[in-house]
Write a structure and sequence with these properties.
30% of the residues lie in helices and 24% in strands. It has 328 residues and is of the alpha+beta class. It has 2 domains: 19-93 and 260-323, no CATH class; 95-213 and 242-256, DD-peptidase/beta-lactamase superfamily (Beta-lactamase). It has a 7-stranded antiparallel beta sheet, sandwiched between helices. A two-stranded antiparallel sheet has the order 5-8. It has a two-stranded antiparallel sheet with strand order 6-7. Helix 1 (98-108) crosses helix 4 (178-196), helix 2 packs across helix 6 (230-236) and helix 3 (153-170) packs across helix 4 (178-196). The longest helix has 20 residues, at 304-323. The two termini are 15 Å apart. The model is unreliable at 1-28 and 30-51 (pLDDT under 50).
């Protein structure tokens, strides 16, 4: 294969191929432009690995879509990346990976991390992270951890109700329902989605329950932006956390990370699962040589263990390039 000409005009449309290598350019505001290439992407710069080659097709267990994005973690402008995708034509259910977007929107509002959030009946939700009772409270700081580790749907709803209401109040609307606050929050999520450049992605809930869809490229863009939020990265790197619950029965709840690759592979430094059975998703952030971060996403696996198997296979496909000597 021949090296790509990275200075060619950027193409705004997503590839309609099932397997492709694309070159990305990330602007200072976090927007990514994509160019389809038939070979590999290489730009000069001492922060980049040498001759990053096109990754051959990876055999996936059952994931419907998958992708790999390499970004520069070092100082200065973010340079070129090489991305491998499978199944990039279709929108996939994001499930609890939706909470990444909820966490970013909350962080953008710069809340006081010591502020307490109190659960009400309006925040009720089935599914993961059901560790808070009505009238109990946690801090904003702990809410980030409860979103990212046990993937609490109730916490996502609390955030949407409270800060959706604050957004309405900032717009001069003081008489609103909990439902209207939730709708306003989701509108803020979709505005964030558009600012990142996630294409035709659409979110309808803060938790991932319901219909929340994006392409694998959109998911990679979301994860790429999330790596720029220290609060999110701190939570992603945490295996277990002591959640302080306030209320009639004050207590410490130990919550655990659901990303099994985080501690089985020392170079995996973060990420988020998404589950809406029978759909199983995974995003992983991997530390690579030369101040690089590797972002790997698998979407739509049919079994929980397949998302980890497929993600690991793609990580290994990239690692071999650093371990195999390159011809001069």
């Amino acid at each position: 294969m021949q090296p790509c000409a990275c200075k060619e005009k950027m193409r705004p449309r997503i590839s309609r191929l099932s397997h492709a290598i694309l070159c990305y350019q990330l602007s200072p505001d976090g927007r990514l432009s994509v160019t389809l290439k038939q070979g590999y992407c290489l730009k000069s710069g001492n922060k980049l690995p040498v001759n990053l080659l096109a990754i051959p097709p990876v055999a996936l267990s059952s994931s419907k879509a998958a992708g790999i994005l390499l970004i520069n973690e070092g100082p200065g402008p973010v340079r070129s990346k090489a991305l491998y995708t499978q199944g990039d034509r279709d929108l996939q259910q994001m499930a609890s990976m939706t909470k990444i977007l909820t966490a970013m929107v909350l962080a953008d509002l710069k809340p006081d991390l010591t502020t307490l959030l109190t659960r009400t009946d309006a925040d009720s939700a089935l599914g993961s992270g059901a560790n808070l009772n009505v009238s109990e409270s946690i801090s904003v700081n702990d809410a980030f951890y409860n979103l990212m580790l046990p993937s609490s749907n109730v916490t996502a709803n609390m955030i949407a109700r409270i800060w959706g209401g604050k957004l309405l109040q900032a717009e001069g609307i003081t008489d609103y329902t909990d439902r209207q606050a939730l709708v306003r929050w989701v509108r803020q999520m979709n505005a964030k989605c558009r600012s990142i450049g996630m294409g035709s992605a659409l979110f309808t809930t803060p938790s991932g329950l319901g219909n929340n869809h994006a392409s694998v490229i959109g998911a990679l863009k979301m994860v790429a932006r999330a790596t720029r939020y220290p609060m999110i990265m701190r939570s992603w790197k945490t295996q277990n956390y002591r959640l302080k619950v306030f209320g009639d029965t004050p207590r410490i709840e130990t919550i655990s990370n659901t990303n099994n690759l985080l501690f089985s592979d020392l170079e995996v430094i973060g990420g988020k699962t998404g589950t809406l059975a029978p759909i199983y998703n995974l995003a992983c952030v991997v530390s690579m040589p030369n101040n690089q971060l590797l972002l790997v996403v698998t979407l739509g696996a049919e079994r929980a263990e397949d998302r980890f198997t497929d993600c690991k296979a793609m990580i290994d496909a990239v690692k071999v390039q650093y371990q195999t000597p390159k011809a001069s």
